[in-house]
Specification:
Elements lengths: L3 E8 L7 H13 L5 E8 L6 E8 L2 H8 L4 H5 L15 E5 L6
Antiparallel strand pairs: 1-3, 1-4, 2-3
């Protein structure tokens, strides 16, 4: 089994530029100890500060899929859900399986 990376795209609403960061800091402590979750990061677009990506690393695609289909998925991530970027410019999320890596 190979590791998986999940990217979810977010956009801060007009008038509340810190909304995504607040949501991330609310969700992340609840995710600690989630089976298969290695780490996650909040990335901000330097060219568009209202645009964010939450990047998470999973031990395997199966571990991510088990969590995603489980009962805790929607409840734990709900503080960020309103800010998902569904503008249509790109998919609002992506799930990738690691096929190669270099240190």
């Amino acid at each position: 089994m190979s590791a998986a990376r999940v990217l979810i795209f977010y956009r801060a609403p007009d008038g509340d530029p810190d909304a995504v960061e607040r949501g991330y800091h609310e969700v992340s402590p609840q995710m600690k100890g989630t089976p298969g979750l290695t780490r996650n990061e909040l990335l901000q677009d330097v060219a568009d500060p209202r645009s964010y990506v939450v990047w998470s690393e999973w031990e395997s695609l199966a571990a991510f899929q088990a969590w995603e289909s489980g009962p805790n998925h929607r409840g734990r991530t709900s503080p960020l859900r309103p800010y998902q970027d569904r503008s249509g410019e790109r998919p609002h999320y992506g799930v990738f399986e690691v096929k190669a890596a270099y240190q």
